[in-house]
Specification:
The protein is mostly beta strands. The protein has one helix and eight strands. An eight-stranded antiparallel sheet has the order 1-4-5-8-7-6-2-3, with no helix packed on it. Strand 7 and strand 8 form a beta hairpin.
Length: about 110
């Protein structure tokens, strides 16, 4: 993985429950990390291959390998939220993580 290809600073977020000022539990997105990534819009062939993961996959982010990316998290890039569908170390060498995402109104990916 070449550092020059990681040209987008993303926010990797997870949903947590916190208490608001009146003591009620509310769900909020918090930044877990802000790694550099490469954004790849999936071509027809990649999208067809990825369909086995999820039907609405639209983009893939490549980041340096990390173990803490899970289903249900989201990635925010330039104010747009992408729901994490799957995070794979396809080569198994713990160098690069491929994060498949969808964009839209899925579990808060719209900003809620």
């Amino acid at each position: 993985m070449r550092a020059g290809q990681l040209n987008r600073l993303i926010a990797l977020q997870k949903k947590v429950e916190t208490k608001n000022s009146s003591g009620d539990l509310v769900k909020a997105w918090v930044d877990l990390a802000t790694p550099w990534a490469r954004k790849i819009d999936l071509s027809g062939r990649e999208l067809e291959a990825a369909m086995s993961i999820h039907a609405e996959i639209s983009v893939k982010f490549l980041v340096r390998f990390r173990e803490d990316v899970k289903l249900g998290m989201r990635i925010v890039l330039a104010g747009e939220a992408y729901h994490v569908i799957s995070a794979l170390d396809k080569r198994g060498d713990r160098v690069e993580l491929q994060i498949y995402c969808s964009k839209g109104l899925i579990d808060g990916a719209d900003g809620n």
